[in-house]
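User: Hi! I have a protein structure encoded as tokens and I'd like to know what sequence might fold into it. I'm fairly new to this, so please keep things simple.
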């Protein structure tokens, strides 16, 4: 699951335009938009903060290798340029690695 402990034990379910993160009884839905033409490929996670009447866009990068999806983002909303995690970057840079569940 990469270095993001809060996602350990969670299940991510993707549809064409959104995904759901389920952990226990908690469920979070997010819209997303892909740009596979860039290097690295880009994904924007669209966070709907209804209680504040605003939407935020988390800029990230991704790679899909077989059944493994890797998403990398910074806590401070800037899009990373690579998947590297040099010492000290885990404070603000996050790496999420997902494996497709076998049916």
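Assistant: Happy to help. Inverse folding works backwards from shape to sequence: for each of the 103 positions I chose a residue that suits the local structure. Here it is:
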């Amino acid at each position: 699951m990469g270095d993001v402990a809060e996602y350990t034990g969670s299940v991510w379910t993707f549809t064409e335009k959104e995904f759901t993160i389920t952990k226990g009884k908690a469920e979070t839905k997010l819209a997303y938009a892909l740009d596979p033409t860039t290097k690295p490929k880009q994904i924007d996670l669209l966070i709907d903060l209804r209680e504040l009447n605003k939407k935020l866009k988390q800029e990230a990068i991704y790679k899909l290798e077989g059944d493994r999806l890797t998403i990398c983002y910074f806590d401070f909303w800037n899009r990373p340029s690579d998947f590297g995690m040099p010492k000290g970057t885990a404070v603000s840079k996050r790496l999420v690695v997902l494996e497709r569940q076998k049916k």
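A useful reference point when you look it over: The CA atoms of residues 28 and 51 lie 15 Å apart. Feel free to ask if any position seems puzzling.
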